[in-house]
């Protein structure tokens, strides 16, 4: 096992009920002009309006951008960045789900360095620090408040494109579980299962040959410092997700989910994620289904194909999920959680046809940044096997 340990994290993480009230101090530590990127349906909530009022009460000039579209079309982000440059913020705040946080990251990048997003696609292409970022998530799932990645939709590309750089890690993460209470059950389910995917895939990532004397890749693979974070995330999410979906106002479940999502983001921000995410990108593009729905659907199948090469790791995940040190039971438990929160079991249930599978497999292999982190060699035949099993809803097809 590799002894490598790498964590790249926000300078400050504030977690807990009412943590949102630390936003004023965080903003004023950077200056007196704040651009806030917020999901449009959150811009009129009492919590957001109170946060803005507190900032203005201490003399902070606030500009609000609430016109960010879902899936983050490139053109929308370029326009938002142009407005940001005119305003000249000392700090940019992202308030909302993963799209709002990723939009804030990309606006901060363009405001600092100019150009177009095309210039920054891929890894380690951001030349230096961006405008300081504060992330305030309102869903428990993406972990974007602690990660170096932002994903954008480019109409010229078949798949979503990532911009990955340690410079995109927010300077401050403010995680208040109360802000997630308003999330609808489906949003809670899809974002929450994605957090579990982050925990499992970061813990089962391949050990990479990384030279610490050189510029490291954004994702360094199996990681001794992130391992405990991944397991604790799974331990928190396992029992809490079903409760948060069934009883949206349960603050204990919401707190466990918020902490689990944060820890999973802290973990995979360094290790990376692998096959569930690589497959989801073409799945999502083809079906226009939510990201977490796709990654959550694929996770049991990915765990099944990984089981022969990482049995000990899956057994430890089983312990974290409360089913004992048994990799097969860990997979069963993940599948059970998905079923209980309403995830489809078969790809055919989200509109995938058998004739779509070859194209999905080919597009999956284009995400080499992700497939290279899987704990086993990945080729077209392996992806085809996973997709066939998921199409049929039969994990036993992956056991021979």
From TrEMBL:
Superkingdom of origin organism: Bacteria
UniProt key word Hydrolase: no
Pfam families: ADH_Fe_C (PF25137), Fe-ADH (PF00465)
Ranges in a coiled coil: none
InterPro entries: ADH_Fe/GldA, ADH_Fe_C, ADH_Fe_CS, Alcohol_dehydrogenase_Fe
Residue ranges constituting the Alcohol dehydrogenase iron-type/glycerol dehydrogenase GldA domain according to the UniProt record: 10-177
Keyword Oxidoreductase: yes
Domain Fe-containing alcohol dehydrogenase-like C-terminal: 188-390
Keyword terms: NAD, Oxidoreductase
PANTHER family per the UniProt record, alphabetical: ALCOHOL DEHYDROGENASE (PTHR11496), ALCOHOL DEHYDROGENASE 4 (PTHR11496:SF102)
Recorded family membership: Belongs to the iron-containing alcohol dehydrogenase family.
Protein name: Iron-containing alcohol dehydrogenase
UniProt source species: Tsukamurella soli
UniProt lineage: Bacteria, Bacillati, Actinomycetota, Actinomycetes, Mycobacteriales
């Amino acid at each position: 096992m590799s002894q490598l340990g790498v964590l790249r994290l926000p300078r400050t993480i504030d977690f807990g009920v009412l943590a949102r009230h630390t936003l004023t101090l965080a903003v004023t530590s950077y200056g007196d002009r704040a651009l806030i990127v917020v999901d449009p349906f959150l811009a009129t909530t009492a919590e957001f309006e109170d946060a803005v009022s507190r900032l203005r009460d201490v003399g902070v000039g606030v500009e609000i951008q609430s016109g960010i579209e879902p899936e983050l079309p490139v053109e929308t982000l370029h326009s938002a960045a142009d407005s940001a440059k005119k305003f000249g913020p000392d700090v940019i705040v992202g308030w909302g789900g993963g799209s709002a946080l990723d939009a804030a990251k990309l606006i901060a990048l363009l405001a600092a360095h100019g150009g177009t997003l095309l210039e920054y696609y891929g890894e380690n292409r951001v030349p230096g620090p961006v405008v300081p970022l504060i992330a305030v998530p309102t869903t428990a799932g993406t972990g974007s408040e602690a990660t170096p990645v932002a994903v954008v939709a480019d109409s010229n590309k078949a798949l979503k494109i990532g911009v990955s750089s340690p410079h995109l890690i927010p300077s401050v993460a403010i995680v208040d579980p109360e802000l997630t209470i308003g999330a609808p059950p489906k949003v809670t389910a899809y974002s929450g299962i994605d957090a579990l995917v982050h925990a499992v895939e970061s813990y089962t990532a391949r050990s990479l040959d990384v030279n610490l004397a050189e510029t490291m890749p954004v994702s360094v693979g199996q990681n001794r410092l992130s391992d405990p974070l991944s397991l604790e995330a799974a331990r928190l999410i396992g029992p809490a997700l079903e409760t948060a979906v069934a009883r949206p106002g349960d603050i204990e479940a919401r707190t466990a989910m918020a902490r689990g999502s944060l820890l999973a983001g802290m973990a995979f921000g360094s290790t990376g994620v692998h096959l569930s995410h690589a497959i989801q990108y073409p799945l999502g593009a083809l079906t226009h289904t939510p990201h977490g729905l796709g990654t959550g659907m694929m996770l049991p199948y990915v765990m099944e194909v990984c089981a022969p090469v990482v049995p000990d790791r899956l057994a430890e995940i089983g312990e974290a999920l409360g089913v004992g040190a048994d990799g097969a039971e860990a997979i069963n438990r993940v599948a059970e959680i998905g079923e209980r929160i309403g995830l489809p079991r078969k790809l055919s249930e989200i509109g995938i046809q058998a004739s779509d599978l070859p194209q999905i497999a080919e597009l999956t292999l284009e995400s080499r940044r992700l497939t290279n982190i899987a704990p086993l060699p990945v080729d077209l035949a392996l992806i085809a096997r996973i997709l066939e099993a998921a199409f049929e809803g039969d994990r036993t097809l992956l056991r021979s």
